[in-house]
Write a structure and sequence with these properties.
single chain; 119 residues; alpha+beta; Nucleotidyltransferase, domain 5; three-stranded mixed β-sheet; two-stranded antiparallel ribbon; 3 helices; 24% strand; elongated
Length: 119
């Protein structure tokens, strides 16, 4: 996810001919978080990243496997972002014993990442 802290005006009333000053934050800073929720125990695993891209996703997948050792498969349900669909990431995940499941396109109400342990 990519939360942002910046002013976003939607509407308001200002007298005709007047200018209104709106306080804003300095700059546009992003906080990039890669995370997953384990459905067995509701543990939350996350990692902050400078950029969310294929290398950051690969690092996160390694972290998931290290936190969940064993021969069972980890199932990840995630959206269709380009870095999730990357063929190298798919092969990398498979090599770690992580099965990837993709949400259907155009399902903004379902976007997110869920981790489930399965035997």
């Amino acid at each position: 996810m990519h939360p942002q802290h910046q002013t976003q005006l939607t509407y308001g009333w200002i007298l005709k001919g007047e200018r209104k000053t709106i306080a804003t934050v300095a700059g546009r800073r992003h906080l990039n978080i890669i995370g997953a929720i384990c459905l067995n125990g509701h543990r939350f695993v996350y990692q902050q990243a400078d950029r969310v891209n294929a290398p950051a996703i690969a690092t996160f997948l390694v972290k998931l496997r290290r936190l969940n050792p064993g021969k069972y498969v980890i199932h990840l349900i995630w959206d269709n972002a380009g870095y999730h669909r990357d063929k190298n990431i798919q092969k990398f995940a498979d090599g770690l014993g992580i099965k990837l499941h993709y949400l259907p396109p155009y399902s903004p109400n379902l976007n997110g990442t869920i981790m489930e342990n399965a035997t």
